[in-house]
Amino acid sequence: MPVITVEMVGGRSVAQKRQLVREFTESFARICHVTPDVVTIVIHEVQDEHWAMGGKTKAQVKEEQGG
């Protein structure tokens, strides 16, 4: 059973996540020649304070940009 794990900063809408799940499932099933019902997707949403790049958390970058 294939499992697709998505890690992203939180804040996307329910509609966006549903579209992501639908399109990942459709693409994986088509490319890997499996039925969509065997594709599992897990979305991990991470808080801004827990996601960092370049030595700064996402929250720090937002603060610096005035957001």
Please, could you describe this protein's structure?
The strands form 2 sheets. Strands 1-2 form a two-stranded parallel ribbon. Helix 1 links the parallel strand 1 and strand 2. The protein has 67 residues and is α+β, with helices and mostly antiparallel strands. The protein has 2 helices and 4 strands, in the order βαβββα. It is elongated and about 45 Å long.
Secondary-structure element string? EHEEEH
Radius of gyration: 16 Å
Biggest sheet: strand arrangement: 1-2
Q: Residue ranges: pLDDT <50 for 5 or more in a row? A: none
Structural class: alpha+beta
Number of H/I helices: 2
Short description:
By secondary structure, the chain is α+β, with helices and mostly antiparallel strands. The protein has two helices and four strands. The protein is elongated and about 45 Å long.
Task: Tell me the layout of helices and strands.
Elements lengths: L2 E7 L4 H19 L7 E7 L5 E2 L2 E2 H7 L3
Parallel strand pairs: 1-2
Antiparallel strand pairs: 3-4
